[in-house]
Every structure is written in structure tokens, then in C-alpha cells.
């Protein structure tokens, strides 16, 4: 009996081993073939504008700046202004004492005496001529002498009055005193300024640009000035056509709207247009690749990718100008894949859909 049970257990173990072997070795193997075509997205080129900006540092200036010079030399008797004062046109700034004025006064007095003597001589000659005591020639000489003396007097007096006027220097404009270069008892001269006055008009900003930027700037173009996190709008009023020898840049000026609170001579950031195109054919900047420095894109050609060389223009963070090489109907691939190359089979994903237009398939085959 025990021997029979032993045989049954052995038989059961053999059956179980055979079943396990059949399960492991007899099961059909599944082979998965994966999709190897790169998944891409494509879009047509669009017509749009591209504007590039550059930030520069400019100097705040008044719209009008006048440097005041005296018109005669002499000792400064009185100074009637200080830096920061607001002055009006015609307001007295300094008074000057000049030795030349004393000489001119002597000339005026001498000319007045000569004029008086000539007039008396003419009166006597006229009386004598009336009695026939003197000739017509004598009368004419007396008249010429009186006329000449009068002219000399007027010339001397005008010269004196003009120099007298120059002894007081006045402000030529309404404005604010920016600098003071004279004190009492100084020697004033026509070659030395006494002060600088900034006009109370619009505020301007002056800055330098490269030739490339200069060619894209025109009068009336808008700029943005940033000072202490406050932005001001402005308009370009001057664009130099000659380079500044000191800086090597082209000088540009712009008026600032509502810039009265800006300090003259301070620095501010100014943003101007560096380059721009309008109504240009553009593609996403991510779609453009380079081979030996030459730009190209991949376009859809049926189910394949086609390499197309292009002539690229300016670009910003999102799009690039395409000058030639593409048409508005082309389908430009703008997603990158290391399997993407000229002639490669591709799968196209609809940007607005969660699935590809041609779903990725997994094929299962059975192997015996």
C-alpha cells in the first residue's frame, strides 16, 4: 500500500513539472514593433511685423541752454544771481565798471564842445552872409563843419551809450541758473562766461548710437525714457548725420513729454528702435537650424521632411523674418527631433489635438 502511494505522488510531481514546462516553453511569444518615425508639428509661415529695441544711456538736458558772456571787460561791481535761481529775460545779472567807459565819456564831452562851437560858427557865418560880408563858399564850409561836428558827437554818444549798456549784463531768456562762474571783484571779459542758463521749455535727452541704429532712426520716432523706475514718453527731434569724433557715435536728441521733474545733467535709460520690418514672412524662430552658418528649415513633403535653405532676416524671441526660400503655403516643421533629417518619414501631430493625425501603432505578432 505504501509503495502504491509513493508511485502516485511521484506521478503527480511528474505531471506538475510537465505542466510548468509546457507553460514556460510552449507559450507563444509576443513581439512588439515600436513606431520609430519622429513626431513633429508644423505650421504655415505668417505675415507679421518684427521690431527690435535697444537700451542706451542718455543725458538729461534742457531744450534750450544759453551761456552768458559779458560784451566788455572790467571789474565786477555786483553779482545778482546764484545757482538754482529762476530768472526772466532782461533781468540784471551783474554790473561792470570799465576804464574804457571813462575814455568814451571824455570823447563824448569833447565832441559836444566841438558841436557847440561849430553851431556858433555857423550862426555867425549865416549872419555875415546875410549882410554880404562873407562868400557863399564860407557859408558852405561853416555848414559842413557844423554837420561834421554833429555827426562826430552822435557817434561818440552812441558808442558811449552802448558801452554803458554793456556794463549791465542781463539774462537773454527765461530759465534757471545752472552754473555760476563769476564773483564780485573778478575781472570780466568777453571771452569768459559768467553763467549758464537752461530754458524753461521741454526737457530733452541726448544719447549716442551706432551707425546701424542711426540708419533706422527718424525724426518723430517714439522713444521711452526710464529714470528711477519712472517711464517717460518722448519723440526724436534730431539725428546727426556725422559721427562724433570724441565718442565715435552719432548724436541723437529727443524731447521728453512731462519731463519737467528730471534733473539736468543726470543719466537715464532710453529705449529706441534698433531695427524693424513690416509685413514680413516669418516662421517660428525654433524652426530654424544652421548648417555651416547657413539657415534652413524642414518642411513637410507628403509624409517626409524636406530640408529647405532660406535667407533669414531679423528675429526676436518668437519669430524670424524669411526673405526668400519659403512660400506662405509651405508647412514648416517647428519641433525638434534628433531623428529629423532630410527625407525622413515623420508623424504629424495636430497642435490643437491630443492625438496625432496618424496614430502611433503597436503591432503584435505571434511567434511559434
Structural notes for this entry:
The structure is a single chain. The protein is an alpha+beta fold and 368 residues long. The protein has three domains: 101 residues, conserved putative lor/sdh protein from methanococcus maripaludis s2 fold; 92 residues, Beta Barrel (Elongation Factor Tu (Ef-tu), domain 3), CATH 2.40.30; 125 residues, no CATH class. The chain is built from four helices and 25 strands. α2 packs antiparallel against α3. It is rod-shaped, with a radius of gyration of 48 Å.
Topology readout:
Layout: H1 2-25, E1 29-33, E2 39-40, E3 42-43, E4 46-62, E5 65-68, E6 74-79, E7 86-87, E8 92-97, H2 99-131, H3 136-166, E9 168-170, E10 175-180, E11 187-188, E12 195-199, E13 203-209, H4 211-214, E14 222-227, E15 230-239, E16 250-256, E17 267-284, E18 289-291, E19 294-301, E20 304-309, E21 311-315, E22 319-324, E23 332-333, E24 347-348, E25 363-367
Parallel strand pairs: 2-24
Antiparallel strand pairs: 1-25, 3-23, 4-13, 4-17, 5-12, 6-8, 6-11, 7-10, 8-9, 10-12, 13-16, 14-15, 14-17, 15-16, 17-22, 18-19, 19-20, 19-23, 21-22
Helix pairs in contact: 2-3
Amino acid at each position: 500500500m505504501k509503495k502504491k502511494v509513493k508511485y502516485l505522488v511521484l506521478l503527480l510531481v511528474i505531471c506538475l513539472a510537465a505542466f510548468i514546462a509546457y507553460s514556460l516553453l510552449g507559450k507563444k511569444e509576443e513581439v512588439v514593433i515600436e513606431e520609430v518615425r519622429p513626431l513633429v508639428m508644423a505650421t504655415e509661415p505668417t505675415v507679421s511685423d518684427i521690431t527690435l529695441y535697444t537700451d542706451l544711456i542718455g543725458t538729461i538736458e534742457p531744450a534750450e541752454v544759453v551761456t552768458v558772456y559779458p560784451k566788455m571787460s572790467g571789474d565786477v561791481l555786483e553779482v545778482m544771481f546764484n545757482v538754482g535761481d529762476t530768472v526772466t529775460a532782461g533781468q540784471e545779472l551783474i554790473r561792470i565798471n570799465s576804464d574804457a567807459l571813462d575814455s568814451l565819456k571824455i570823447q563824448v564831452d569833447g565832441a559836444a564842445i566841438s558841436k557847440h562851437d561849430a553851431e556858433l560858427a555857423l550862426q555867425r557865418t549865416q549872419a555875415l552872409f546875410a549882410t554880404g560880408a562873407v562868400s557863399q563858399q564860407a557859408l558852405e564850409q561853416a555848414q559842413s563843419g557844423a554837420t561834421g561836428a554833429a555827426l562826430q558827437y552822435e557817434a561818440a554818444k552812441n558808442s558811449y551809450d552802448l558801452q554803458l549798456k554793456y556794463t549791465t549784463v542781463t539774462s537773454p531768456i527765461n530759465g534757471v541758473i545752472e552754473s555760476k562762474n563769476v564773483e564780485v571783484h573778478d575781472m570780466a571779459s568777453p571771452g569768459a562766461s559768467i553763467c549758464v542758463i537752461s530754458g524753461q521749455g521741454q526737457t530733452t535727452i541726448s544719447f549716442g548710437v551706432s551707425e546701424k541704429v542711426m540708419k533706422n532712426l527718424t525724426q518723430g520716432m517714439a522713444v521711452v525714457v526710464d529714470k528711477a523706475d519712472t517711464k517717460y514718453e518722448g519723440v526724436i527731434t534730431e539725428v546727426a548725420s556725422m559721427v562724433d569724433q570724441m565718442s565715435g557715435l552719432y548724436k541723437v536728441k529727443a524731447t521728453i513729454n512731462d519731463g519737467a521733474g528730471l534733473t539736468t545733467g543726470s543719466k537715464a535709460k532710453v529705449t529706441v528702435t534698433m531695427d524693424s520690418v513690416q509685413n514680413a514672412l516669418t516662421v517660428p524662430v525654433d524652426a530654424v537650424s544652421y548648417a555651416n552658418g547657413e539657415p534652413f528649415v524642414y518642411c513637410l513633403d507628403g509624409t517626409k521632411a524636406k530640408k529647405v535653405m532660406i535667407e533669414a532676416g531679423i528675429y526676436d524671441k518668437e519669430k524670424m523674418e524669411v526673405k526668400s526660400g519659403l512660400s506662405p503655403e509651405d508647412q514648416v516643421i517647428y519641433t525638434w527631433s534628433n531623428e529629423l533629417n532630410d527625407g525622413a518619414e515623420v508623424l504629424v501631430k495636430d497642435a490643437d489635438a491630443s492625438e496625432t493625425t496618424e496614430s502611433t501603432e503597436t503591432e503584435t505578432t505571434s511567434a511559434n
